[in-house]
Amino acid sequence: MADSTPPPVESQEPQADAPQQMVLRRAPKITPFLVSGAVLGVVVAFFWVGIAGSVEEYSQTQTVSFFAAIFAIAGVTIGALWWMIVDRRSKRAMETLYARPTDDPAAADMALTEEDYALWSQFQQNERLEQARREQFAQAKADAKAKKHSKRK
Question: DSSP for 1-62?
Answer without folding.
Answer: ----SPPPPPP-PPPSSSPEEEEE--PPPHHHHHHHHHHHHHHHHHHHHHHH---TTS-HHH
